[in-house]
């Protein structure tokens, strides 16, 4: 029983030492102990080691690169990373481009949503002439993430305004819209307005006869990340409203040019035809109303007795002329 207890205590002690050592890697990196050379148990700092830059691309791709100008051609490289909240080591795939004097190491970073920390320690091993260079860098993934360009850029034309809308980029670490700053470029001219946390922009004085080319890029704000990296510009979105309006105006003008003369010609022919009809078929004259009323009276057929004229002799005939 005492032997078993001693073995158990030894195992726990070994495990605690290993965990402490693994945790110390992140602590050492965080304290800027970034380069160590070991040969024959000698440890010292080498100032000629290259400057290494690491970035997160495409949400979960960790890419680290450095120049090999100051290093030997037969140098060997390897790299790995681990989360500071875990002990598992994740290797990176390193490739060397001799023509460009560049080494690049890449690997997928699988982030679990339940992770409270997104700090990683990246270890680089460079072997030159029997010397082993071990370089360690500490990173917060939010500080080294280069976001993708905004996606799904759409435009809506409202009278003399052009409303531009887009969706936020995918991110491994940034989930607050207020942490994102957008930059808008229209016809190679950058919009001066600050687009922090916005997903739309309204351009006034929109001219439908012009062609507009729209691009957007994004970065993190100072409040959410210590270093900011602009994303690449999005694919150009071209608003070709001017061409559609040009064809519409041309069709309307053509319709007016052909239809309006035909309408005027039809009206002119109708007027001319009415005059021609009156000449060919003149109207029959009707008696005036006075004559018609006179003919309708019965007094016209009655004989009016002659009036007696004073001074005329009796028996004398009087001729009355009715004119």
Architecture per CATH nomenclature, i.e. the level-2 architecture of the domain at 25-143:
Sandwich
Helix percentage range? 25-40%
CATH top-level class of the domain at 25-143: Mainly Beta
| Helix count, DSSP H or I runs of 4 or more residues | 4
Q: Which structural class should the secondary elements be placed in?
A: alpha+beta
Strand portion, in percent?
Answer: 25-35%
Descriptive overview:
This protein has 323 residues and is of the alpha+beta class. Helices cover 25% and strands 33% of the residues. It has 4 helices and 17 strands. The chain has helices spanning 2-30, 141-144, 241-280, 289-296; strands at 35-39, 42-44, 53-57, 61-67, 76-83, 90-97, 102-108, 119-128, 131-140, 151-158, 161-167, 180-186, 189-190, 195-196, 200-203, 212-220, 237-239. It has a 9-stranded antiparallel β-sheet with strand order 2-1-9-8-5-6-7-4-3. A hairpin with a 2-residue loop joins β1 (35-39) and β2 (42-44). The longest helix is centred in the C-terminal third of the chain and has 40 residues, at 241-280. It starts with a helix and ends in a 27-residue tail after the last helix. Mean pLDDT is 75; it is low at 1-23 and 243-247.
Provide the fold topology.
Layout: H1 2-30, E1 35-39, E2 42-44, E3 53-57, E4 61-67, E5 76-83, E6 90-97, E7 102-108, E8 119-128, E9 131-140, H2 141-144, E10 151-158, E11 161-167, E12 180-186, E13 189-190, E14 195-196, E15 200-203, E16 212-220, E17 237-239, H3 241-280, H4 289-296
Antiparallel strand pairs: 1-2, 1-9, 3-4, 4-7, 5-6, 5-8, 6-7, 8-9, 10-11, 11-15, 12-13, 12-14, 12-16, 16-17
